[in-house]
Amino acid sequence: MDDEKKQITVGAKEGLGAGIVGIALLLGFLPMASQNIADLEFISSEAYGILAGAVMVLAIFTGIAGLAVIFSNLSDDEE
Amino acid sequence: MATASVGSVRKRSSRIPLTYVVALVPVAVALNIVGGQINGILKLPTFLDMIGTAVVAIVLGPWWGALVGASTNIIASFIGGPIGLPFAACNVVGALVWGYAIRMGFGKTFWSFGLVNVVTAFFVSLTAVPIYVFIFGGATGHFSDIMTAAFIGMGQNLFVSVFSSNILVSLADKIISGFVALAIIEALPANLTSHLTLPKSEGMGKVMWITGGVVVGLAIALVMMMVQG
Question: For chain B, which domains are there?
Fold first, then answer.
């Protein structure tokens, strides 16, 4: 019984936080990646355009994450 | 069923021990990268880089799956070049659709689970098409580029051509990934999956259904290869 109480567990709240960390990682790597992509021979797009488009997509994900914070039941589900 | 007994009352919790999460997330990322590499080497008409995402999104939750998806494409971009990084958005969308669909109660039967995979394929393609068109001009060197060129040759515009080829590839890929993920989930400890409503079947029924699902995905991929061949 004591062992069960001591065990560290994660739920929906921690999952949501992890997802937002994933989006943050993508945002951190995008400036470098967009320049590398623009440098490829067969790419006609500019680095700025690639970065702008990718940031807009990630803005949508961040918005969804925000809505999840507002509407999700982040309490522990126990039956 | 994994339960924690408190007196005579049996509790079922959706909370998962951190040790399982710490173990499962890196393994899922590795599974995605290995699947993607195998697919790239064999030049298959699939992607196979979302099996780990599906496992984590279904078992741990959609946002853990999003973390796996984002991490997969970031790490894969160091191995195979930066082309894959913009497609991290597709991996994240797949994780969200799989994770939320299962938690909303879809996927109770094998048919509805198959439908969840089809819906995932649709949303992933919707996300992928603007990336293909606006960043890469419609081609990235994947198998589906041949089909895109064929559709353009038939008089379709670039958006329709890219979507048509991508949805076919994505359909095969997500059906295979979803059912392989279901097989992996079956092998996980019961206290990780007890809070999920996944398809149930007695005896060899589940093996038959999972095999059937993978075969359907492979059949779609084979038909595409034969049509292009």
Answer: 16-228 (1.10.1760.20)
